[in-house]
């Protein structure tokens, strides 16, 4: 070591040979190289080639509709009686320097106004729909509209006293306007541009106050909407707003007709197919408010003309029937006729019972029972006086074993098992059962994507076969809005539909089961006869209710064509005059299950007349011993929470000896609960 150096430096370790190190490293994974390191070593040409390949793959997998190609649809409608839609159209045509257009096709009617793109402000074709106060037409137009424009007129605004009482003197939304607003919210709202009409007729010193007041009305009912009072601002707002996707309509595809032509039973409809999904000639289409139709052929219009013929049979079965039902794997369920078995201790108590002469007791009540026979035939208690919600009243001479023969007892409606394959109606053979509806929808959309022939945004001509002439006369009526939508696979098959809904806040009347109502499910509308049932938590069964008096969620069950979830459902009262019909309830599709168990409950009540600790003599539940013997296996319950069983009948006037699990109190009410499976009424669907 050099002189003066204080540290010792040893020879560095070089390890084993390279060959030995290579043998040890065999089988190990190489270190992953990050994408950033790869890009650093790649040239610009290679990176551009990779990006081009990615774009080509995306174009093959997903169809990209270029913005600004499709016509933007704007629906304008009044929200109060003073709003003048004809005046709005006239002022708009003056602003756009458009002269009167002669009626030559469906799209040139008075209710339409087509504006071409000019390359400056209007870079996309616009199509305005001007509607009167017809709720049916407004709902149909808003189904296909990209922008809705509610119009409020301030002509009848009382400017002298508006500062004292703005709500009563503004005369903004009227009763029909609020009803329409409820329907639109239930159906689903798109982008909104609100227009204040007749503001120039208000004096200058009150104009700003009126404008602020009507702006407040619009902001409360349409949050986030553009509020304008002149057509320059209106046109800028319409052009700037983008289309808002609505899943339930875009997943099927839809079209607003441009022209109609009827020749030899075939109806040809020309228009631009809209939405996110394409169309195939093998699909069915639905005309809202009319019916479902099969496609004969589809002609692609434009630069490249092409015709797609349908491969489906010409006949369209009104009710699809298939013997193969999706029953699924069902466990072997047993009927649960509940009955509490008496223990040895209870039997001993019966033997050690103090001597009581029930024969004397029977004679004592014989005369009283004879009097009650006449009273029960005359008297009828109101629903408020009943001890239970489902309590039933019956005459003395009624044989309950025959009247309630189809009923059975359940220990607990939530936990007791009930075989879903029993007590099925005769219509079960004619309808389909969709057990896994969401999974079926995914498969249908994937299959539809592979078979679609028409892409969204293409201008087409659809020819429908077997269209009656009477329907064509309805379609060709002036100023009528009709919407054509595509049907997914299985949406023509009849099934039992269950909708989770609640009573609307504007409807205060009672909803009764089995009464005919008017329903809208997505693009479809029809008259149905639903039954209502209460949804039970953590239970696959529901409890039938005769009437709905509150705003809680219930289940409406009825027979209808299958519809996949994510579609809004609206119920109206059964009124053929749509202008005066009132919204009853709103909800969404829960499932389409033929084997849904809906149980109807009835309660027979009796009262203790002789009590001995846990035993009691009950009267007024039955009036003959044969009925007591028939319902003996079913468990009893009381209003104070006791459980018991029928031991034996006493005498011939309906007295019976019962045993309970605790001491019986004189003010208690004894009940016997019976259940029966019910189904909705099968009726022909009226669209």
Descriptive overview:
With 687 residues, the chain is of the alpha+beta class. The chain has 4 domains: 72-244, 3-Layer(aba) Sandwich (Rossmann fold); 248-321 and 438-486, Translation factors (Elongation Factor Tu (Ef-tu), domain 3), CATH 2.40.30.10; 344-416 and 599-677, Thrombin, subunit H (Beta Barrel); 427-431 and 494-596, Elongation Factor Tu (Ef-tu), domain 3 (Beta Barrel). 24% of the residues lie in helices and 26% in strands. Strands 7, 8, 9, 10, 11, 12, 13 and 14 form an 8-stranded antiparallel beta sheet that branches. Strands 2-3-1-4-5-6 form a 6-stranded mixed beta sheet, sandwiched between helices. A 6-stranded antiparallel barrel has the order 25-26-29-28-27-30. Strand 19 and strand 20 (541-545) form a beta hairpin. Helix 5 runs parallel beside helix 7 (175-187). The longest helix is centred in the middle third of the chain and has 21 residues, at 358-378. The chain is extended and about 95 Å long. Mean pLDDT is 81; it is low at 62-68 and 317-358. Residues 391-678 form the Ribosome biogenesis protein BMS1/TSR1 C-terminal domain. Pfam families: AARP2CN, RIBIOP_C, Tsr1_G-like. Belongs to the TRAFAC class translation factor GTPase superfamily. Bms1-like GTPase family. TSR1 subfamily.
